[in-house]
Specification:
The complex is a heterodimer of chains A (420) and B (82). In chain A, a hairpin with a 5-residue loop joins strand 1 and strand 2. Chain A has 16 helices and 14 strands. Chain A has 420 residues and is an alpha+beta fold. In chain A, helix 11 runs parallel beside helix 16. Chain B has one domain: Alpha-Beta Plaits, CATH 3.30.70. Chain B is globular, with a radius of gyration of 11 Å. Chain B starts with a strand and ends in a 5-residue tail after the last helix.
Amino acid sequence: MATTTEQRSPVIDFDHHSHEYWLDIDGYIDRARHKARIGWSPHHGGFWVVTRAKEAKYIAKHPEIFSSGRLGQPDGYTNLNIPSSFMGREPIMQELDPPEHGKYRRLVNETLAPRQVMEFLGNIDQWVTFLVDRFIEKGSCNFVHDFTSGVSALVTLNLLGFPTDEWERYSGSFHNTVGHHPGTPEFEYGQELVAWVSMKCAEMTAERMRHPADDATSKWLTYEIDGKPIDPERVTMLLFHFMGGGTETTGSLLASVLNYLSEHPEHRQRLLDDPDFMDLATEEFLRVFPPAKAHGRVVLEDTEIDGCQMKRGDRVLISWVSTNRDEEVFGDDADQIILDRFPNRHSSFSNGPHRCPGSHIARAVFQESIRQILTRMPDYRVISEQVTRFPKQDILGGYSSMPAIFTPGPRWGTPALQPA
Amino acid sequence: MKIRVDTESCSGQARCAAVAGDVYELDDVGYNATSEKAVGEGALASACRGALACPEGAITIVDDDGNPLDEKQLRKLARLES
């Protein structure tokens, strides 16, 4: 295990849990990036922080050196977060390195490839309608509670063939754990719900083993891995991966953009009228409001990058917020929001084998949500003085509350899809 | 001109097909389906847009002498600048 007493340089005062970071992530990260491409932070037991896209992409693409696994951690703890947090007995999908990762990734990709998402657009549309119908006649809503946190949960449950009647417990689970400090009642409640989601995933696997249906879970159970029937625990892992990946991330992006468009209403009409502009703007929104702020790795073998001597067991934090603002990739206007920016090679879905498999469905949910909200609530305004952000933004950024007002409108009637 | 895709680097971001669906095809799981493909004059701008969009830098456009085009040449051929 690495120790902080050994010489590591250059040292950089970087703490993604600090109040300064929380207050102004972009400014904090810009200062860090201009100090060091890779620097050694003495905080949280010591770790390398990676600020430039070139090195970040190299690290993400070399899992044989920079592992997502649990080397050096106590039982059940992960290297994905710094400091480490408890993740459970079995590794989650994100913690598997190739070639093990690829065996399961294939199944995830089959469910989430662009053409599968295309076939699911009608369902996404209906879930958005279902949620907006619940508040459209009132003239006020809370975007986070009433919409952004629920829409991905409903879509994910529906995609996997889960019952949708308890969708609010699913959406509440990760929302509470990522958005609140350990020890707070919200966090404790969130942890309870995450355990409940985990149990629901195991139940789903068991249920589909007894009674196969026409859904992803049943299909995965028929696969062979290494010439043997897939371990049902791994099917549960995949289900949990979908729930964790799908429930709070797209919601974070949606909330950021709804807030931005409240302050910049001049872009609303063009987003509705011009699909090409919507596509370009989606990438720019992803670049400047990345839901996943950073991911951790652990060094498997001694290596050197940019003169930094990395030792086996050293921990590494890739800051996607920083790589997305890297002037070497995005030019002198990297700190500006330019909605029709192209090319836009951001890393908001990460790079390499762990590229977010939900990236395509995330874009679809995002665009359909924005289109419907702008169509049905064209004059909405976020009550900015009542907006609150997650009290931490170290791993996942987002909002806890975002009240809004608008001219009431009609319901679009009963969508074919209802929670059941 | 030729499109060369480093299929090892392709991570299924699928931005190539999103911005240049006339040139780039995806396989069943959403990764670039071809490793090498000739590209005619008419499709060159599109091919270059797709190469520029790839967050993994997995797509190279090579000229008839086998030399890879740099970012500036790609931008020009993609008609992003004169």
